[in-house]
Amino acid sequence: MSGEQPRRAPRAFRIDGDRIVEDAQRQGARENGGHARKAQAEIIPEPPLPEEIAAVPIAPPRSRRWGRVLAIGLGGLISLAAGLAIDSLIRDLFARTDWLGWTGIVFAGLAVLAVLALVIREIAGLSRLKQIDRLRAKFAAAAEADDRKTAGAALSELTTLYASRPETAHGRNAMAGHAREIIDGRDLVVLTERELLSPLDARARTLIANASKRVSIVTAISPRAVVDLLVVAIENLRLIRALSQLYGGRPGTLGIFRLVRHVLGHLAVTGGMAAGDSLLQQVLGHGLAAKVSARLGEGVINGLLTARIGAAAIDVCRPAPFIGTQPPRVTDFVGSLRKAAETVEDERPGASG
C-alpha cells in the first residue's frame, strides 16, 4: 500500500563509554545503491532531577525515647518504694530496741555494698566485651589492609589481655620472638591465630561437643517437652558464657543478655536458625535414622542446633576473626553425636530385640 512506511533494516548497537554509537548495517543494493550508510547518533541523558526530588529524606527509625523514659520512671518508683520500705523497717526496729535498729542498718549497708559491687562487676564485664569487639575489628582491618602497625597494636593488646592465662604462655613467648620478624600485617594476624588462639579454639570445640552431647542425650530421654526447652535454654546459656570466658570475656547478667542478642543476630544474618532442613539431611546422610529411634533422632537434631549456636558464639566472642584457620562447622560434631546416640540406643532395654 502507498500509505505504508518502508520497513527499517536491522541495526546493531555498540556501547562506547557514555555515548551510544549507532552503526547501520549494510543496506541492500536496491536501498543504498550498494554502499554502506553509517550514522552516528548521540543519546543525551536526561537532566538530573532537582535536589528536592532526588534527595528524598529517609524516614528515621522510630525513637525509643518514650520506652526509656518509661523504664527510668518505673525504675525510680521501684527504688523509692524499696528505700521507703527499708526506712520504715529500720524505724520500727529502733522503736522496739536500739540494737535491732543498728543491726538493720548494718544489714542495709551490706546490701548497698553488694549492689555497688554487682554494678561495678557488670560495668567491668560490659567493658571487657567491648574491648574484645574492638580487638576483633582491629585484627579484621589489619588483615584486610595488610597493615603491620594496626596488627602490632592489636597483638600487644591481646597479649596484655592474656597475660594471666597459663594456656597462652607458649603462644605469647612465641609471638614475642616472631613479632619483629613479620613485616606483613596479614601474616602477623595469621601467626597470632595459630600461636595464641589455637589452644583456645581447641578448647572451644571441646566445650561445644560436650554441650551438644548433653543436649542430645537429655532431650532424647526426657518425657516432657517443657524439660527439653529448659535443658536446651540452660545448656546454650552456659555454653555462651563458657566460650566468652574462654576467650577473655567476663560477662555478668547484662553481658550474657548482650551476648545472646549478638549470637541470635549472627545466626539471623548467616541463616543459622533456618538450618533445620540441612541438619536433618546431614543426619539422614550419615545413616543415623536407620540406627536410632525417632526420639533419639530428635535429640541429635537438638544437639546439632546447639553446636550451631556454639559456632556462632565463637564468632562473637573470639577476639580475632578466622583469617588463617578454619572456623568450626556443624558437620564437625555429627560424628560424636552419632556415636553418643548409638551408645544410648544400644543401652536401651529391649534394643537388641
Question: What would your notes on this structure say?
Answer:
By secondary structure, the protein is mainly alpha-helical. It has 12 helices and 2 strands. It has helices at 29-32, 51-54, 65-96, 98-145, 148-161, 169-178, 185-221, 225-246, 253-270, 276-285, 294-317, 334-347, and strands at 11-16, 19-24. Strands 1-2 form a two-stranded antiparallel sheet. Helix 7 runs antiparallel to helix 8. The longest helix is centred in the middle third of the chain and has 48 residues, at 98-145.
Topology:
Blueprint: E1 11-16, E2 19-24, H1 29-32, H2 51-54, H3 65-96, H4 98-145, H5 148-161, H6 169-178, H7 185-221, H8 225-246, H9 253-270, H10 276-285, H11 294-317, H12 334-347
Antiparallel strand pairs: 1-2
Helix pairs in contact: 3-4, 4-5, 4-7, 5-7, 6-7, 7-8, 7-11, 7-12, 8-11, 9-11, 10-11, 11-12
**Count of DSSP E strands?**
2
Give the C-alpha Rg.
Answer: 33 Å
Mean pLDDT: 77
Task: Estimate the global geometry from the Cα principal axes.
Answer: extended
| DSSP helical segment count | 12
Uncertain stretches: 15-30, 34-43, 49-57
Span between termini: 92 Å
Largest sheet composition: 2 strands, antiparallel
Give the % helix: 55-70%
Structural class per helix/strand content?
mainly alpha
**How much of the sequence is in beta strands?**
under 5%
Strand order of the largest sheet: 1-2
Question: What is the chain-wise order of helices and strands?
Answer: EEHHHHHHHHHHHH
